[in-house]
Amino acid sequence: MTPSTILIQEIGGNLAGEVQDLSGVSPMSCFQCTKCSSGCPVASRADVKPHQLVRLLQTGQREAALTNRFIWECTSCQTCVTRCPQQVDIPAMNDALRALSLKEKKAPAETAVPVFAAAFLKSIRKRGRVHELSLMATFKLRTRRLFEDADKAPMMLRKGKLPLLGSRVSGRSEREELFRRSAKGGKP
Amino acid sequence: MRYAFYPGCSLEGTAKDFHRSTLAVAGRLGLELPELKDWICCGSTAAHTTNPLLADALPARNLRAAQGVPVAVACAACYSRLKTANYHIAQDSSVRANVAKAVGGDYDGETPVRHLLEILGRDIGEKAVARAIVRPLAGLRVACYYGCLLTRPPEVTQFDDAENPTLMDKLLETAGATVVDWPHKTECCGASFSIADSSIVVELSDKILAMAKAAGVDCIATACPLCQLNLDMRQKDIEVKLGRRYDMPIFYFTQLLGLAMGCSAGELSLSSLMVDPRKLLKSRGLGEAAAQPVGVKR
Q1: Of A74, A105, A122, B231, whose CB count within 10 A is highest?
Q2: What is the ipTM of this complex?
Q3: Domain A15-103 belongs to what topology?
């Protein structure tokens, strides 16, 4: 996609409505001032820039909105929504788009964010807290990125920043219940 | 004022230096920080990118356990998650009802959440901090770096000016340091992509370090485990990938305050910083504390 053109590929559906249901954010109030993209720390590397993503939602371009790399590269830094004259909460919108993208199996293959998030949440469920060393090990095994950042764990171990054993909090069944009910939107 | 301290997972590992220096500074100020019993993870980025209800329920589970006692937080990411959950729960009765179902009990979203910078700068106040200073950081030029999540979004955190926060600047000025005006106080370092996509961290952290260097500072002070880790640990990658070498020590603001309050290097875990600050501290006459690294084999 060139920076100024959106090729209308589909009409219909209600992606903006789905996003609003999930996140409470209405993409429709955006009038494309591009302030979000001007301050976005990852806009320069993004395949779709923040204001373009909002436009994709306004025009119902489901495929483009759910398959782009940007929704996985957003750092949730909150700069865009802080400066937006219409309070369009793009980070919250991206959370919703990520969930839809995963559900429809449309996340780009190169993103490791879902694997990282899953390993992170599993650690919370099991231990109550995140044990960074096991998290890093699980992430590396699952993504087979064994050699990327291979120097980091030894660096941190040397500095005493990665305890071998993490703490564990009791109440696992209570946590399992919290996760289960959250996944069902609060239903028992 | 009484607080329940919520350290967060990072302070048990990669940010143990933040933990130690926080407790050291609190000790010098007579501030008691008893840990919130059986606290669990706030859910961090992983929860809010996966499930909005989970992202509110995990903080609510902790804030409910505090039983109305203000919760003291060191990690900017935990702070953001706890404040955001409070905001959602207090503003939206349907969120409150769903969170109650998820955590097995009602929570009103009203337990105060205070970051250490707010506690030191506002609750305790600069005057009391000034009385604890015994070794002013004279001649140390510092860039105060706040990152994203303390100030943004401002209606949620209500922390300080969103574009030009000064809470940390004032505290370190009180400690005798020379703080500089610089434009990257609240730029993003790449935060939680530290592991999942480090190319983003390298690119963004480089911009922050370059601006700090241009501002002519000796070091950067941080208030967030991820900011500190990214700016400190990634300097090596930035050198390899982008060919720029900074050798810029990245402190937690509590380490600098602690130095000024006469704490030892061991109390402040200065030896766990990746970019060795000893040469710098020695050159500013602060080397005495830095000369006693403990606990870590080099």
Answers
A1: B231
A2: 0.90
A3: Fumarate Reductase Iron-sulfur Protein; Chain B, domain 2 (1.10.1060)
